[in-house]
Specification:
It comes from Nocardioides panacisoli. The protein has 4 helices and 14 strands. The protein has a 7-stranded mixed beta sheet. Strands 7-8-9-10-11-12-13 form a 7-stranded mixed beta sheet. The structure holds zinc ion (2 copies). One zinc ion binds next to loops.
């Protein structure tokens, strides 16, 4: 399984010279089998605009699973030629407040006039809007299995996602997660995965902000990775003010978790090959 990081920024996009190396697009991850085009995408932030580069101009056909509906996770939907395409076929999994809610109507609250010129059902191609609820997620493509679990964040329903190659490697994606140092919220979704892609928006000195905004500090995320006994952890959803230089400093300061697991800071445009974790006892 490959995870291509199309957007690694949290809250809002971060253009400019100080953000070139780690990238400024907001949350979006393309999941693919090696050598295959992606048929599964996690989140639809502005990074979704780059999906076309992985498809050589072909339309996207597959599933897009949203962790939650904050702007930084959905604003790419109307700006990606790969999904807004006459020949695209997209099943969009929309977190809804309760099982009876209409996913299209929930999404339309943020995407319709006067907030935006069109509604979700005016996107080009064939679209299916399905509710995302806790548990296994029904995908078009059986090369991957996804399950969803409610996790703490702020402002509405938010999910952590687990993606597995049946009989193979597993990854977990929790880009927005309210976690205090020592916290273990929702750990079952990441338990034992080979790769954890996790919220690392704030640093330790910003704990009050992290909690107020429903996010995690870097040390809390690394402790969580140890608790979940993951193979390695990649921190994402970088704060929009965190410059390349500041992220380099963090990467140098945190090469591994307290339990010895490798740590990396997500870089837009890179592909993470998820490989089986080595045995780590802690
Ligand atoms: Zn976010
Ligand atoms: Zn959020």
């Amino acid at each position: 399984m490959n995870l291509t990081l199309l957007g690694v920024r949290g809250s809002t996009a971060a253009p400019g010279a100080d953000f070139v190396r780690y990238g400024g697009h907001t949350s979006c991850v393309a999941v693919s089998a090696p050598g295959e085009p992606p048929a599964l995408v996690l989140d639809a932030g502005t990074g979704l605009r780059r999906l076309g580069t992985l498809l050589d101009g072909r339309p996207f056909r597959g599933d897009v699973v949203l962790t939650h509906l904050h702007w930084d996770h959905v604003q790419g939907l109307p700006f990606s030629g790969a999904v807004d395409h006459p020949e695209s076929r997209v099943r969009l999994h929309v977190p809804v407040p309760d099982a009876g809610a209409d996913p299209l109507e929930v999404l339309r609250r943020a995407m319709s006039p006067p907030h935006f010129p069109i509604g979700p059902d005016e996107l080009l191609g064939e679209w299916e809007f399905v509710p995302l609820l806790p548990g296994p997620v029904a995908l078009d493509d059986d090369r991957f299995a996804v399950s969803a679990r409610r996790i703490r964040h702020k402002g509405g329903v938010a999910y952590g996602l687990r993606v597995a190659e049946p009989g193979g490697v597993q990854a977990a994606y929790l880009p927005d997660h309210l976690l205090l140092d020592g916290g273990t919220d929702g750990a079952a979704i990441a338990d034992g995965v080979d790769l954890l892609l996790h919220d690392g928006q704030f640093v330790a000195s910003e704990q009050l902000l992290a909690t107020a905004y429903g996010h995690t500090t870097v040390p809390a995320a690394l402790g969580y990775a140890d608790h979940c006994r993951v193979g390695r952890v990649v921190l994402t959803h970088h704060h929009p003010d965190r410059t390349d230089a500041a992220l380099d400093e963090l990467a140098a300061a945190f090469p591994e978790t307290p339990g010895g697991r490798p740590v990396a800071f997500a870089v837009q445009g890179t592909t993470l090959a998820v490989s089986p974790k080595r045995n780590v006892s802690q």
